[in-house]
Write a structure and sequence with these properties.
- Helix 20 links the parallel strand 35 and strand 36.
- It is built from 26 helices and 47 strands.
- With 978 residues, it is an alpha/beta fold.
- The protein is globular and about 105 Å long.
C-alpha cells in the first residue's frame, strides 16, 4: 500500500510555517492546525522574544498563497484529539472552529466595528488585532460581547459569523510535524522582577509589539501617565531566575544590548543600564553590538543576583543586585525592560499522550541523536521551540531541514498548482482602457458620488469603458469582475479598489480570468488614499479623478509579456567532504538527484580528530553512505579551478588526480570548514603542560589527569583580530571541567564571560561541582608562568598554581582557501572571514527579512554550511547542512523556472545600456550580468525579485521594471499634476 502524501502540522512556530512552505513548494499538501483563534494569537518566537520592531507577517505570506492554490487546509481553534497508525499511514482526528471572520471573504470595511454597541477599554467588543500591515485579523471579545448580531447583519459579504460551529475532522497523513508555539515565562515565574506589580516593568516583547507599525520610537516606552522615561534598566531574566523556570537561547544577551542601543538612538540623554550575569553573544556580529553599546554610553552591569522592587504609587522601581564579588548595590529606574527566556512547552504532556513522543529531562520534546527534528516515533517530527531554547535562525533552518527527513515517509506528490488561464495577445490593437470603480458592496457610495466619478472618468482620453463594480476581493466578485472586463472588450484595465499590496493576487486573478496580462493593469488605493482620509465630497471627487487619470496614462504605456523562463540543472555540487558536506550530499542524493562531492584531502570526513566516539561513528556512517550510492561522485585530493554561471546553470571545472573534470550544476554547497586557532604566548608550544581544550580532552580520554587544572577562555576570540565569540569554547571547557572535578581535580576557569547556551546549563552544573571561576578584564589576558612547582597563572594580584593549563581556543576561517574560493565563486566573505549568509546575523531588521522570505535562490544558488558558515557545534553543522539540502530540494527538481514574481521582473533597454555594470554591483540577488559579447546588461530571470535597485542606479534609464517603466511613471505624474 502506498504511503500517504499529506502532512499534518500541529502548531504555528516559525519552523512549522517554514516546513509548510517547503512541503507546498515540493508538491505535498498539508493540514495546518493553529491552536489560536487568529494567525498569531499563539505567539511564536519572533514575536515573543526578539526586538524586531517591525511587521513580521512576511512569514505568513506563503501560507496565504498555498491556501488559495489548494495545497493548505488551515484550521483555527484547533485541537488534536487522536493519532493512530504508523509512519506513512497515520490516521488523525482533530477538532476546529473557524475564525469569526473569514479573511478570504472580508473586505476590511470595518462596518462591524462601527455598529458594535459595546466599548471596553477604548475599543469595541469586535476589534482588529494586531493592527499590523499585512492582514487585519478581526476577533471578538466574547467576555463582553452581547451577541446582538449587529456586526453579522452589517457584513456585506457574509464573512462574519459570531457563532462558528465546532467541527471534528479526520484525515490520513504520511507524517506529523509538531511545531507548537513559544511559551514565555508567566508573571508568576517572573515575580522576582516585579512584573505585574508595577507599570514600570514590561517585557521586551511588549516593547517590540508596540513598535510593529512604527518601528522603535519614543512612544514604544511611554509610561501610562504619558511620561517618557529617562532612566532604563534592561534585565536578562534567565541569568537571575530560579533554575528550571526559563531557559536561555543564544540571542538573549544581544537582544538586551540591541534594545539598549535603540534606546540611546531615540533618547540620547537617557541613562541606560543592561544587567546580566555574562554577555553571551555567540552569533555573527553579536560582539560588535556589545562594543557599539559601550561606545554609545550604555552601562553594562554584571551581577550575581538581582531582584526588582516596586515603589508604591510611583512610576519607578529599584533594582537590587549583587556583583560577582559579593558587593550589594541598588539602581532606581523609571522603566525596567525584561528580556525573558523560554519556558518548557505546556502542551508536552498532552502531545506525549497523543503521539507517543517523549519529553527530555527539561520538559522539551526529545529528538533522536544527530537528527534535526525526528522524534523517537517514526514519522513524527518536532520543530523549533518545542524541542528547546533556540534562536530564530535555528528554528527556520529546522523547517527546511524537516523536508530532508520527512520525505522518506511520504507517498507520491499530491499537489501541483493549476496552470494560469490563457491570455490573449493585444499586440496591434488600438488602446482601449477600462476603469472599474469598486463600491465596496455599497459602502463607498455613502462617502463619495460614484456615478458622478464614473461620468467624469468616461470623458478621459483613452478611456473606452467605465463602470461601478460591487467588489473584486471575494470569489463571486472576482468572477463577476472578470466577466465584466471581458464583456467590455477593453485591453487595458484600471481597478480603483483597496489595499493592492495585500489583495494584488486577487486582482491579478480577475484580470487574467478576463484574458489580460496583469502588466496591462493598474490597481489604485481608492479606499486608503481617498475614502478613509477625506470628508469633503467635492475634494474626494477631484482627487479620485486625478488618481484614475494617472492610472489610465500608466496602463496606456504598459507592455504585455509572459514570465521569462530559464532552465535549472538538476545536479548539486558540494565543496568539502567533512560533516556538513557529507550530510548535504547524502540528503540530496537520497531524494534521487546526482551530487558531485569535491574534497581537497585524501580522505573524506574532515577534522575527525576533534570528534568523540559517537560523533566519529556517525561521520563514518555518512562516508559509507556516500561511497555506496551510485548518484554521488566523489573526487578526493581535488579542488575547483574554474567556476562560471549562475544559480541553476553553473559550469565548474574540478582538478582531480585523474585530470580535469567539467561539471554542470544547479547549486553549490560550500562546506569547506574552518580551523582551530593556534595560540601564541601562554607558554603554548614551549611547555607540554600547556595545551588546548582538544588536547586536554585527548589526554583525559587516554586516562590521564592532574591534581590542579587551570583553564583560560577566549584565546583567539573577542579580540581586534578575531572580533567574535567562537560559540563552542565555553561549553567544551565546562564539560571538561565537570569531568575533571568528578575525578578529583581542582579546576579554576579564568574568563571574560561564560557564553553557554541551550537546554543543559553547564555553567550551573560546573559551579555545583566545585569549579572555581575567576573573571579577567576584556583588555588583559592572564599570564602563564613556569616555576619550580609547576605552572602559575597570574591574573592581576591573583596567582593560581596549576599542573596543567588548558587554553580554550576559538574557531577561525581557513583564510587562504576561503578567500580563493570566494574569488572563484564570486561569493563574498563577511567581515569575520566566514562566507556571508542571509541568516544568523544582526540586526534582525535586516536578517529576518531574508530569513523568512521564501526565496531559495537569494544567494545565487550558493549555500554555505557548517563551519564555512560560522562557528557551529556538531549538531548545528548537521542542521545547517540539512537546511541547505531542504532549500535545494525545493528548486532542484524543476526543469524550468520563472521569476519569483512571474512576469513582474526587471529588464534592459539594450539600445540605452552602455554596459557600465552599476546594476550588476547593486543587485542583491546576483540576477544581473554583463554580456561580454554585446557589452550590455542582462537579467537572469528566476533570480530577479523585481526590487528596483537596478532601476535606481542606472544612469541611462536603460534598466526598468516591466510594471514600472520610466515612461509610465512620468506620464502618470504628469496626469496627476494637470
Amino acid at each position: 500500500m502506498n504511503n500517504e502524501s499529506t502532512v499534518l502540522i500541529y502548531g504555528t512556530n516559525l519552523g512549522g510555517y517554514r516546513a509548510a512552505y517547503a512541503l507546498g513548494k515540493s508538491g505535498h499538501k498539508f493540514i495546518l492546525l493553529n491552536r489560536g483563534s487568529y494567525v498569531d494569537e499563539m505567539r511564536y518566537q519572533a514575536l515573543a522574544q526578539m526586538p524586531l520592531d517591525f511587521c513580521w507577517i512576511c512569514g505568513h505570506m506563503p501560507q496565504r498563497l498555498f491556501k488559495a492554490l489548494g495545497a493548505m487546509q488551515d484550521c483555527y481553534n484547533a485541537e488534536l484529539l487522536e493519532v493512530s497508525g504508523e509512519a506513512g499511514h497515520f490516521h488523525v482526528k482533530f477538532k476546529k472552529r473557524d475564525k469569526v471572520v473569514n479573511n478570504f471573504a472580508c473586505t476590511e470595511c470595518d462596518q462591524c466595528i462601527e455598529v458594535c454597541p459595546v466599548e471596553v477599554d477604548g475599543h469595541k467588543a469586535i476589534r482588529v488585532v494586531p493592527e499590523a500591515a499585512w492582514e487585519n485579523c478581526y476577533v471578538i471579545d466574547f467576555e463582553h460581547c452581547t451577541r446582538c448580531g449587529k456586526c453579522e447583519e452589517v457584513c456585506p459579504t457574509g464573512a462574519l459569523k459570531v457563532e462558528r460551529p465546532e467541527e471534528v475532522l479526520e484525515a490520513d497523513v504520511g507524517a506529523i510535524i509538531l511545531a507548537d508555539t513559544f511559551e514565555e515565562p508567566s508573571d508568576e515565574d517572573l515575580r522576582d522582577f516585579a512584573l505585574g506589580q508595577s507599570s514600570s516593568v514590561v517585557r521586551n516583547s511588549e516593547v517590540a509589539r508596540r513598535s510593529l507599525l512604527t518601528n522603535f520610537v519614543r512612544d514604544s516606552v511611554r509610561l501610562p501617565s504619558g511620561k517618557i522615561p529617562q532612566t532604563f534598566g534592561i534585565v536578562v531574566t534567565p541569568h537571575f531566575n530560579r533554575p528550571g523556570v526559563e531557559y536561555e537561547n543564544y540571542n538573549l544577551s544581544v537582544s538586551a544590548i540591541y534594545r539598549a542601543v535603540r534606546l540611546k538612538d531615540v533618547l540620547p540623554q537617557a541613562d541606560v543600564t543592561v544587567f546580566l550575569h555574562d554577555y553571551r553573544g555567540t552569533g555573527k556580529g553579536h560582539y560588535r553590538w556589545y562594543q557599539k553599546a559601550l561606545g554609545a554610553g550604555v552601562r553594562v552591569e554584571r551581577a550575581e543576583t538581582l531582584k526588582i522592587v516596586p515603589e508604591d504609587g510611583a512610576e519607578r522601581v529599584t533594582i537590587h543586585y549583587a556583583s560577582v564579588g559579593g558587593e550589594s548595590y541598588t539602581h532606581t529606574v523609571e522603566l525596567a525592560i525584561l528580556v525573558t527566556g523560554q519556558s518548557p512547552p505546556l502542551q508536552m504532556a498532552e502531545l506525549s499522550r497523543l503521539t507517543g513522543v517523549q519529553a527530555d529531562g527539561n520538559g522539551f520534546c526529545h529528538i533522536r541523536p544527530f537528527s534535526c527534528c525526528e522524534t523517537d516515533v517514526d514519522g513524527i517530527f518536532a520543530l523549533g521551540e518545542l524541542t528547546g531554547p533556540k534562536g530564530n535562525p535555528e528554528t527556520v533552518w529546522e523547517g527546511c531541514a524537516t523536508l530532508t527527513e520527512v520525505q522518506k515517509y511520504l507517498g507520491e506528490k499530491n499537489f501541483k498548482p493549476a496552470p494560469g488561464p490563457p491570455l490573449r495577445d493585444v499586440e496591434g490593437e488600438p488602446i482601449r482602457a477600462g476603469v472599474f470603480l469598486c463600491s465596496c458592496f455599497g459602502l463607498f457610495n455613502e462617502r463619495i458620488d460614484l456615478p458622478a466619478l464614473e461620468e467624469q472618468v468616461r470623458a478621459l482620453p483613452g478611456v473606452a469603458h467605465a463602470e461601478i463594480i460591487e467588489g473584486c476581493c471575494t470569489g463571486p466578485t472576482i468572477k463577476a469582475t472578470a466577466e465584466r472586463i471581458k464583456q467590455s472588450g477593453v485591453n487595458r484595465v484600471v481597478l480603483a479598489v483597496c489595499t493592492p499590496l495585500q489583495k494584488k493576487g486577487k486582482y491579478d486573478k480577475a484580470v487574467m480570468m478576463a484574458g489580460l496580462n496583469p502588466l496591462l493593469c493598474e490597481y489604485l488605493r481608492f479606499r486608503e488614499d481617498v475614502i478613509q482620509v477625506h470628508t469633503d465630497r467635492d475634494k474626494m471627487l477631484e482627487k479620485s479623478l486625478a488618481l484614475v487619470r494617472g492610472g489610465v496614462e500608466k496602463v496606456k504605456r504598459g507592455m504585455q509579456a509572459g514570465p521569462p523562463m530559464d532552465t535549472f540543472t538538476p545536479r548539486a555540487l558540494v565543496v568539502g567532504g567533512g560533516l556538513g558536506g557529507l550530510t548535504a550530499a547524502t540528503e540530496i542524493a537520497a531524494n534521487g538527484f546526482p551530487v558531485v562531492l569535491v574534497e581537497h584531502e585524501e580522505k573524506l570526513g574532515g577534522q575527525m580528530q576533534y570528534l568523540d566516539e559517537e560523533q566519529r561513528k556517525y561521520v563514518e556512517g555518512l562516508i559509507s553512505a556516500v561511497e555506496s550510492v551510485d548518484n554521488v561522485t566523489c573526487y578526493t585530493q581535488a579542488h575547483l579551478t574554474q567556476a562560471e554561471g549562475y544559480a541553476g546553470n553553473y559550469h565548474v571545472v574540478v582538478d582531480a588526480p585523474t585530470g580535469t573534470v567539467p561539471v554542470d550544476t544547479g547549486v553549490i554547497i560550500v562546506a569547506t570548514g574552518a580551523q582551530e586557532y593556534r595560540p601564541e604566548g601562554f607558554l603554548y608550544g614551549q611547555d607540554p603542560r600547556v595545551m588546548t581544550q582538544a588536547e586536554l580532552q585527548a589526554k583525559m580520554s587516554g586516562g590521564e589527569t592532574a591534581g590542579r587544572v587551570a583553564m583560560i577562555q577566549c584565546i583567539g576570540s573577542r579580540t581586534p583580530e578575531v572580533p567574535y565569540c567562537s560559540r563552542l569554547c565555553c561549553n567544551q571547557a565546562l564539560k571538561n571541567a565537570i569531568v575533571l572535578r568528578e575525578k578529583g581535580s581542582d579546576v579554576t576557569v579564568f574568563y571574560r564571560d561564560i557564553a553557554t547556551y541551550g537546554k543543559v546549563d553547564y555553567y550551573r552544573l560546573a559551579r555545583e561541582a566545585g569549579v572555581r571561576f575567576v573573571r579577567f578584564p576584556d583588555d588583559r589576558y592572564p599570564e602563564v608562568r613556569s616555576n619550580g612547582n609547576g605552572l602559575e597563572v597570574v591574573n592581576g594580584e591573583m596567582r593560581v598554581q596549576a599542573d596543567w593549563v588548558a587554553l580554550s581556543t576559538g574557531i577561525v576561517p581557513d583564510a587562504e582557501n576561503s578567500q580563493a574560493l570566494s574569488r572563484l565563486l564570486n561569493y563574498p566573505l563577511d567581515y569575520e572571514g566566514f562566507f556571508s549568509t542571509d541568516i544568523s546575523c544582526y540586526p534582525y531588521e535586516e536578517a529576518i527579512k531574508k530569513l523568512t522570505k521564501p526565496f531559495e535562490l537569494a544567494s545565487n544558488g550558493i549555500f554555505p554550511v557548517g563551519l564555512a558558515h560560522s562557528p557551529r557545534s556538531f549538531e548545528e553543522t548537521i542542521l545547517t547542512a540539512k537546511d541547505a539540502a531542504g532549500r535545494v530540494l525545493v528548486v532542484i527538481g524543476k526543469k524550468k523556472m520563472p521569476p519569483p514574481n512571474k512576469m513582474f521582473v526587471a529588464d534592459v533597454h539594450e539600445s540605452l545600456c552602455m554596459g557600465c555594470g552599476l546594476c550588476v554591483d547593486v543587485c542583491p540577488y546576483g540576477a544581473r550580468y554583463i554580456d561580454e559579447v554585446e557589452k550590455v546588461a542582462r537579467v537572469h530571470p528566476f533570480l530577479c525579485d523585481s526590487c528596483g535597485s537596478c532601476v535606481a542606479i542606472c544612469p541611462n534609464d536603460a534598466s526598468y521594471l516591466r510594471d514600472f517603466m520610466g515612461q509610465q511613471s512620468i506620464a502618470a505624474l504628469d496626469a496627476l499634476l494637470v
